[in-house]
Amino acid sequence: MTSNSLYPQAETIEQLRQNIDAVRQRIDQACTKAGRDPLEVRLLPVSKTHPAQYLRQAYAAGCRMFGENKVQEAYQKWQELDDLDNLKWCVIGHLQTNKAKYVARFASEFHALDSLRLAQALNQRLEIENRDLDVLIQINTSGEKSKYGIAPEQAAKLITQLEAFPRLHIRGLMTLAINSDDTEQVRSCFIKLRELRDQLKKIAPPKMQLTELSMGMSGDFELAIEEGATIVRIGQAIFGTREQPDSYYWPK
Fold first, then answer.
1. Domain at 13-240: CATH code
2. I need a labelling partner for 46 at 20 to 30 A (CA). Which of 53, 155, 216, 244 fits?
3. Which residues are in the Alanine racemase N-terminal domain (predicted)?
4. Is 83 exposed, middle or buried (CB count within 10 Å of its CB: 0-12, 13-18, 19+)?
């Protein structure tokens, strides 16, 4: 969902802390409206475009995980911030198979699995690194050709195939809603993801826990929470409006 209001840049630790608190209050309010426990919803700060030194301020403000779209940018930040205790990284953008080695080396979560081939590449690299990875399958709920993710009707087949990759722990689904001012169009994307997750639970392998729904960003996360989001990916409402347009990080 688009927004005409611009988020001011947070330039200090205190401003970042205030923005995080404001977002958490909005999460709490959305949960109350939906009759949900706020503890069911995790805030994932999305730090794309922001340099490592700035993320040190966000860490000081309380952030312990950052979401990044471009894996090589995230990998560089991971290296620069490796002195910070308990800092984790989540890759949320489209990943080419030849870059799976980076995710396998440093990420704790990956929210954009969209092919069997990528699952194979990730599992192979994770074996080499002797690491495991929490993974969400990206679903294209809007049907837009400009968005990555598999079609909803392809999810059941992929779910059954992923049991072959023990290094991947499939936790749930992720989506990007349609970018529209039409609230009901946006909401329909979130409903579709929740209903698909509930269907997949019935056929998923016994050890596969499909509990997570990563959906909702700065402009639409209240709607996502109303429809069952367990992870909301918030960038601009915490850090401020990005200089780069969304198309730079969500390429067509």
1. 3.20.20.10
2. 155
3. 19-242
4. exposed
